[in-house]
Design brief:
With 316 residues, the chain is an alpha/beta fold. 37% of the residues lie in helices and 13% in strands.
């Protein structure tokens, strides 16, 4: 949920309701993250987490792509998303959990609790010294968390991947991808996860900074697809014109992210959902317009009901 929707108010509301709210550090400078941490702590005295991008990639020349797309090549640049400065800040003033996406920090930082996002059994085995693994299934919205974005990947759904990772490691698992209601939470808990992580389900909450045109598309039953056309890294979003027009977008992250940044900002401001990324999971139409705290409470009630119903069915 980096790049806009996540706010200190959203993270604090989730934590106050008994969940573990997360701040997205991606695309924020270290100074902005410092402000977000302070604001979240002002709003809640409950534990919360921070997610950090840990990508490793070589710079890519995207000038030909910029010319073909009619965009300013000078905007494209490589960046490690201020990784070292953010890690130093979080080490000095750590939240309860720091999770990493797009790669495995080496060595793992000395923090109270470190989670690493994985999308394959191989990644899970390499990260088994983390405190927990966030197992991201194919259904998830936003960027695929795979450590190396490539075309010859195998995409695996949340429940199947959870079972495979559970068989390969004893590390606690947090399941994510396509979970939008309490029944989905119950399903992954029954399948061996220690917790469920939801993202798209919170995009319609008033505390989220999701723009109106994105909210409208989340409410609808539109299909989603995987694309590199907005960032140069594979991500799932609700289908729109830009995704359809550029099915062969190059693998060039974060250069394409910066190349398309101005176009996306203009489209958001104009309310044009065809020219900015509508990140959302496959179950996006199940998202509900509720305050985040109320949504957490409802999800917990639904999960308990689903588990009780499953127990009764087994007892028949």
């Amino acid at each position: 949920m980096s790049g806009g929707p996540t706010t200190p108010a959203l993270a604090a509301a989730v934590s106050d309701a008994g969940g573990l709210g997360f701040l997205a550090a991606g695309y924020r400078t270290a100074d902005q993250l410092r402000q977000d941490l302070a604001e979240t702590r002002r709003l809640t005295d409950q534990p919360f987490g921070v997610n950090v991008f840990a990508h490793r990639s070589a710079p890519v020349d995207v000038s030909a792509t910029a010319e073909a797309w009619g965009l300013d090549a000078a905007a494209a640049r490589w960046s490690d998303d201020d990784y070292a400065a953010k890690l130093a800040l979080l080490s000095e003033d750590p939240p309860a959990v720091v999770s990493f996406t797009f790669g495995l920090p080496d060595p793992l930082p000395d923090l109270p609790e470190v989670w690493v996002t994985v999308t394959t059994v191989e990644e899970a085995r390499r990260a088994e010294h983390a405190d927990a693994l966030v197992v991201q299934g194919y259904e998830a919205g936003g960027h695929r968390a795979t450590w190396v974005d490539r075309d010859d990947r195998e995409d695996v759904g949340t429940l199947a991947l959870l079972a495979l990772v559970r068989a390969a490691t004893d590390v606690p698992l947090v399941a994510t991808g396509g979970i939008a209601d309490g029944a989905g939470i119950a399903a992954v808990l029954a399948a061996g996860a220690s917790a469920a992580m939801l993202g798209t389900a919170f995009l319609l909450c008033p505390e989220a900074a999701t723009v109106p045109s994105h909210r409208e598309r989340i409410r609808a039953e539109g299909s989603t697809g995987l694309t590199r056309a907005f960032s140069g890294r594979l991500a799932r979003g609700i289908d729109n014109a830009w995704q359809r027009e550029h099915p062969d977008a190059p693998l060039a992250y974060p250069e394409i992210h910066y190349l398309t940044a101005a176009m996306r900002a203009e489209a958001r401001a104009a309310g044009d959902p065809e020219r900015f990324n509508l990140w959302a999971g496959q179950a996006h139409s199940l998202a509900r317009e509720l305050p985040a705290g109320e949504l957490v409470t409802l999800l917990l009630e639904e999960a308990r009901e689903a588990l009780e119903l499953a127990r009764h069915r087994l007892d028949r």
